[in-house]
Amino acid sequence: MTHWRYLGSTGVEPSGDYSGGYYRLANGGLAGALETFSALYNPTASLTGMGGRDRVDASETFEHSVQDALDSLPSDLRSRMSNVAIVVADEPPPGQPLLGLYEGVPLTQRGSSYGGVLPDRITIYRGPLERLYGRDRRRLEQEIRRVVLHEVAHHFGISDERLIEIDRY
What we know:
Blueprint: E1 4-10, E2 16-17, E3 24-25, H1 29-40, H2 58-71, H3 75-78, E4 84-89, E5 100-103, E6 120-125, H4 126-133, H5 137-155, H6 160-165
Parallel strand pairs: 4-6
Antiparallel strand pairs: 1-4, 2-3, 5-6
């Protein structure tokens, strides 16, 4: 049985242009979001000062690392996240070698008729990340951050193909 913990969701409605049935990010549009994610994906970026919490056990440490990654997003980008729940689960579905998963309707595909729907979900899988990177706490935190930002990028409509193009997959 997979256990999961709900970390929260964003309820802020994005401000932007819905013309043509597509959401366009204000202040730089999708290109601005790409540029921001490209800068955030720096694997050597400092993780200090992003939360400053006392870490009690491995489960809480993992969840704090996920929250720290979300907190590292610039406030203007974070405020544009809409109707998305962030969840930490122990394991991905059987047979799926995943570290994280975004399920939902990306902001770029939400039209004027978007409404009354369940929140999108970003799931971060603790088990595979800890097995792969758990021997080095700093590396684990870096990889959690990378996976969280990768899934948030999908929420903003940035595909795996585009992340590969900009060398941020």
